[in-house]
Design a protein that fits this description.
- By secondary structure, the protein is mainly alpha-helical.
- It has four domains: 8-42; 62-212 and 328-351, no CATH class; 214-319, no CATH class; 356-559, MetI-like (MetI-like fold).
- The protein is built from 26 helices and four strands.
- The protein has helices at residues 12-42, 63-74, 79-86, 109-117, 141-154, 157-164, 192-201, 214-227, 231-238, 260-273, 287-297, 302-305, 321-331, 333-353, 358-387, 392-401, 407-421, 427-431, 438-449, 453-461, 466-477, 479-494, 498-503, 512-521, 525-545, 547-559; strands spanning 126-128, 209-211, 279-280, 283-284.
- Strands 1-2 form a two-stranded antiparallel ribbon.
- It is elongated and about 115 Å long.
């Protein structure tokens, strides 16, 4: 019957009490859900929004926030790469505005796309974005696609290593850092793996590709460190009157009519700083020079070429990459948003699925731990409850004393004992120390004591043996409490990290929690929170599956 009768609920004080109870329960639920929701939102983070503490990630509702996250992934978290490509001086990705569709330079986007589709650039001029996330520690879409491409082409990891001369020991470590083709030491296709990567990146979607800019490199990483970002210092040294660094030209050939300082800088940059792959004899052969040559061939499009953004034959006309990527961003927003939303989760799944035997070891370990807990503990509790030994109280006290010592205290003697027995790096080492639990035996004995003695006497009169009494009567009537023991055993085994790492130091025996710890050591906050959420799902699923039985474990003893 209810605590408060139906008639009693009509009074004002009772209604206020009930309202206060529901309000307290609602506040308690909110207090539990708020940090969980923050973690769910945080599991989508990258470097661009890692300082945000919001319940709904901004990039899901804000086009500008999505643009910032896309730029971060497009340039592989490198602000220098972005500033060279856009010939700018942004401090962070959040500072880059999203140009409107009719911004200056947007009129050149169709010609730029035609130029790219014509094959006017060599593979080393193309940079692959959404490929590398060194700070976030995620596996972006193009890195996943590259590994999938290698799996389809070479089949096995052994076949890949034999064909490309590599020594990868797992698919999750298959990686090549994008070659820095602007710098002198870079050489296209210097290794078989680099050649394979150069061929692969040409098949990537346009919203994942950028074009390297030697002229942006010249201004951003050569001139500005020498003269500061203020163009006044450059003008004072060269006797010029440029309004911005974007106006400073990088001549196609040696500037014989330029001041000596400009000639010296041209020689130093082209001979010692820039990769020789951008020279054709004494002439520079860069994406900028090829783009301008392409525009000269298209000079009949006078409406475009005479626009305010571009002046024909200008030696400083930039590549229209900002307008191009803004247009691509608007065309592919759903794909970009979906990738950035799920990237951290796909990173965790790729890591655990193709990373050793973590899932298999965990399944075997948890299954055996549950089976042993449901066999050893009930047998011990049944013996104490059924036969009532003279030292039963002392045995129970001893079992309870085992709960007084934390597991960290016993790890060292357990490790030494298992080492002497030669059981390290085996499932036996994981299972044997926790096979019996003093708390579980104590709990089971109390439940077994509450079972009617008449059942045992009746079964014995019918000729039932001790095993029949244990298996068909005791165990059948103890399903609720056994489910509690099984859930406890599963939770302990599944969450076992420190002990599993200490006892099984060989990676072939590591469980899922150990592998996730290794992932978290090289990952950013977003991947860490995604791994924690995914790791919690099996425990949640087991709890929901056992919920009815657990409730019976609460109700049945009360009914008795």
């Amino acid at each position: 019957m209810p605590i408060i009768s139906f008639i009693g609920r009509k009074s004002l004080p009772t209604r206020l009490l009930i309202t206060a109870v529901y309000a307290a329960l609602g506040l308690g639920a909110a207090a539990m859900l708020y940090p969980l929701w923050l973690m769910i939102a945080g599991s989508t983070k990258s470097v661009a929004d890692q300082r945000d503490n919001v319940l709904v990630p901004r990039f899901l509702v804000s086009e500008l926030a999505l643009w910032h996250k896309h730029l971060e992934a497009l340039f592989n978290e490198s602000m220098d790469a972005l500033n060279m490509a856009f010939d700018a001086d942004y401090i962070s990705f959040e500072d880059v505005p999203l140009p409107p569709p009719d911004a200056p330079g947007s009129e050149l986007v169709p010609l730029w796309r035609e130029f790219l589709a014509s094959g006017g650039l060599p593979p080393q001029a193309i940079a692959l974005g959404h490929y590398w996330a060194p700070q976030a520690g995620a596996f972006p879409v193009q890195l996943r696609e590259f590994r999938q491409h290698l799996r389809e082409k070479f089949g096995t990891l052994e076949g890949l290593n034999a064909a490309l001369g590599t020594a990868f020991d797992a698919w999750y470590v298959v990686f090549i850092q994008p070659p820095a083709y602007l710098f002198p030491h870079a050489a296209p296709g210097s290794t078989p793996l680099a050649a394979e990567f150069d061929a692969f990146k040409l098949s990537a979607p346009a919203w994942c590709q950028t074009v390297l800019s030697p002229e942006g490199f010249f201004r951003k990483l050569y001139l500005k460190p020498r003269y500061s970002k203020d163009i006044a210092a450059y003008n004072a040294a060269h006797g010029t009157a440029y309004a911005a660094y974007a106006e400073v030209p990088l001549p196609r050939e040696f500037p014989a009519d330029a001041p000596p300082l400009a000639q010296e800088e041209w020689r130093d940059f082209t001979a010692n700083t820039l990769s020789p792959i951008w020279r054709n004899g004494e002439m520079l052969d860069t994406p900028e020079t090829r783009w301008r040559d392409f525009l000269i061939l298209k000079k009949e499009d006078s409406a475009i070429l005479n626009s305010s953004f571009f002046i024909l034959n200008s030696s400083t006309a930039p590549l229209p990459q900002l307008a191009h990527h803004a247009a691509l961003f608007r065309e592919h927003q759903p794909e970009i948003r979906r990738e950035l939303l799920l990237r951290n989760y796909r990173t965790v799944l790729d890591y655990v699925l193709f990373h050793g035997r973590g899932i298999l070891n965990t399944v075997v370990y948890c299954t055996l731990a549950v089976l042993l807990a449901l066999l050893v503990n009930p047998l011990a509790a049944y013996a104490l409850s059924r036969f009532k030994p003279a030292a039963g109280a002392q045995i129970l006290l001893f079992l309870m004393l085992t709960m007084a010592f934390p597991h960290m205290v016993t790890q060292i003697p357990v490790f030494v004992l298992l080492r002497e027995l030669g059981l390290l790096n085996t499932f036996a080492a994981l299972l044997l120390p926790g096979m019996a639990s003093g708390y579980s035996i104590f709990l089971l004995k109390g439940f077994f004591d509450s079972l009617p003695r008449d059942l045992y006497e009746s079964a014995q009169l019918d000729g039932a043996g001790e095993w029949t009494l244990f298996w068909h009567i005791t165990m059948r009537l103890s399903t609720p409490i056994l489910s509690v023991i099984a859930l406890q055993a599963f939770s302990i085994a599944y969450a076992n990290f420190m002990y599993a790492l200490l006892i099984c130091q060989e990676s072939r025996m590591w469980t899922l929690m150990v592998w996730l710890y290794q992932l978290q050591q090289r990952s950013g906050p977003g991947v860490v929170q995604a791994s924690l959420l995914l790791a919690a799902l099996p425990t949640l699923a087991v709890f929901l599956a056992c919920q009815r039985v657990l409730l019976r474990g609460i109700v049945v003893p009360v009914e008795k």
